[in-house]
Amino acid sequence: MIFDKKILKSYIVPNSETKGSSPILRNPEDIETLEFKELSDLRTIYDVFWKSVREAPNNDFLGYRPFNEETRKFMPYQFISYKDASIIAENFGAGVVQVKLDRLKRSGATEKEIEETQARNWPVGIYSANRPEWQIIDKGLCTQSLYSVALYDTLGKTAYEYIVNHSSTTMIVCTLDKIPKILLSSSRIPNVKTIICIDPFTESNYVTNNDPTLTIPSPFNIKSVNILKSWAKQLDIDLYDFNEIQEIGKQSRIPHFPPKPENIYTLLYTSGTTGNPKGVISTHENYASAAVSTYLSRGFQMDNDDIFLSYLPLPHAYGRTTENYMIVMKGKIGYYSGNVGRIVEDLHALQPTYFAGVPRLLNRFYDVLTAKTINLPGKEGEICRKAVQEKISNLHKGLGVNHKKWDELIFNKTKAMISPKLRQINTGSAPLEPRVCDFLIVSLICKITEGYAMSETSSTGIMQQGVYISNGDTGIPFHGVEVKLIDIPEMNYLVTDLPLARGEVCMRGKNIFGGYLKDPEKTKEALIGDGWIASGDVAQINLDGTISIIDRKKSIFKMAQGVYISPEKIENVLIKHPLILQAFVTGQSVKEYLVGVIVPDPETFIPWAKKLIQSQTHTNTESYSFETLVKNNLVKNTLLADIESICRETGLNGFEIIKNLYLEHKPFDVETNGILTPTMKLKRFDAIRYYAKIIDQLYNENN
């Protein structure tokens, strides 16, 4: 392996290279030890939360925007303090234990069942979108050494039933709209005996020390609630609301039952790209170390005045670790109003200093901001383009992100369109296009850092640190995390490759999960020994010791001529094309060439396609819709030729270039066509099924 020691950013552990394995990389602060130099007392999420409660009881903690029924608008954010949230959480946790014990005693449970319940470490399902109560429930369960099982709809229509049964969950905490669904499926989830409704059944407030904190009126009328209660009773299911559980917990006087580091903190089910979701068993040590590691690795120091907008789903590790990190900081978390389409409005209302997102949303920011700047017509657009070019040029010269003249004239206003206080954006789950990243940095006058992690690593792994711009890398290891690459001979990725080592990413640290629930075979595939997890992703180690994700191991397939194809490698090339928004590349084992489904970016594609048709056929295309343009053969063939040219320039082999394509006007998504996972990864086998007829058509056309 070759490194440039003058620019080395990772610490290379001496004599750690073995046959088939690269040297081990660490954060440069972890030369002597992987143990944290700060906050080493935070060994559980219980420790994380209660330390902040003790040290900053009156700090604002959780906020939401009440909805005004008269004006039909969302109001300004209201917050609850760390102290008030802790009171609700501990009462809720005690109440959960008490109602479970009451249920067991009523049903004539054995002494052993009661003892097991009293010993804690049993699951409670949470079935809700992000809201303050989600965080309170999570921390309430921690006070009693119980663990959450995240339930959500985007895994599929019946996935929540599979998760409930697979995890042996007997109690679900959910929003009111989920109760009919749970009752309807009660025969298929027979273990569920208790439902706790987050929304109050009456027009009452959550009360702590007789002072109202959160005021959330019941969205159903009393008649509807009574019907649900009667229905639940017929099914022998206990139905409570959030307030009842709090009051039961308060009266029970059950003391805290703090977890140990090795106790389970949460069971997250990964969406996966095929088959049933896998239950990722994560301990308190995993997530506590992830929160502290994130705090130590952010690249700039935040404090308890920092504000974060929560919209990343809490059933995912990314969202959970980010919010636990904010708790370490004793910062404020404001929850989005429930619709991603209102994110910009929520950002305006909250004015966060820190935002964590995914490329799909950041691309929307890009569209909003470019429409107001570089895409403006006339002199105004010309000035904006000049300003952006100059700032990006300065950025890449290492001159920073600020520019007195252009910021005062343009960019303080663009920043205010998102949040005037914004200092940092973190992004993950997929690469962010460099042109989008550069534009957002200069127009929002903030840092943007990209990272790489997995549910199995508690959403910590590799991240850019302390930089304004990316050189195409994903960063260096988080504090407390080790990274190495191992050979993938079937894909010709070897750690002995020159000039850069390439191979499968492996990670090790306290953040690594304990295994997949009831699935020893999958666990053995992932945990390869000596504390290492094999990620299934392919990376290279750059000359400066940074790591770049370049491919995906698990998606490879074989073509008729015997060559192995990595479709994600090709898709990553295609989506860098300015006309392409999404790409799906596939092949058949009996064929010698690839085909693809391309979703064009309407912002760039529509004007390009109209101009192309007009120039070639002298047809008036003013009335042509997006759907009409994607069906045009001239457009398709011109784009296909352009794709071939770009693929060759990028260095792809001839057999890696698609020979036919279908232009799709409907984007790949989670809900409509189910082709994406909730973390926006392509579900390859579902895509193959969804486009089966199209794929056959593409091959028949070429024949």
Automatic annotation (TrEMBL):
It comes from the Eukaryota. Keywords: ATP-binding, Nucleotide-binding. Pfam families: AMP-binding. GO terms for molecular function: ATP binding; long-chain fatty acid-CoA ligase activity. GO terms for cellular component: endoplasmic reticulum; membrane. PANTHER family: AMP-BINDING DOMAIN-CONTAINING PROTEIN-RELATED, LONG-CHAIN-FATTY-ACID--COA LIGASE. This is AMP-dependent synthetase/ligase domain-containing protein. It comes from Furculomyces boomerangus.
